Amino acid sequence: MPVEGASVYILLCADGSYYAGLTRKEVETRVSEHNLGINADYTTRRRPVKLVWSEHFELLTEAIATERRIKGWSRAKKEALISGDYDALPALAARRNKKGGPKQFSS
């Protein structure tokens, strides 16, 4: 049975990679589908998968924005979220911006 809003989740794949997804179903149901290869392009070749983090959002738009944000994060930032080290998140974001940010040109 669908739940109100949506949940964002992170899976640890058998190859050690992380997969971030969004579902309007129960998270456990969606994880089971990943492990069965149902609607799971990326994870089908990386099974079995294990749920390592999830959060439910009342608003679908908030869940979509969060999933997109997480998909753009570095591995280190995802691991900080998974471990609950919320204090590390801003520093990890700043570090990434310094390395890969747009070049500044002087006139």
Automatic annotation (TrEMBL):
InterPro entries: GIY-YIG_endonuc (IPR000305), GIY-YIG_endonuc_sf (IPR035901), UPF0213_domain (IPR050190)
Pfam families linked to this entry: GIY-YIG (PF01541)
Domain of life per record: Bacteria
Entries under CDD domains matching the protein: GIY-YIG_UPF0213 (cd10456)
Record protein name field: GIY-YIG nuclease family protein
SUPFAM superfamilies in the cross-refs: GIY-YIG endonuclease (SSF82771)
Family: Belongs to the UPF0213 family.
PROSITE patterns: GIY_YIG (PS50164)
Ranges for domain GIY-YIG: 4-80
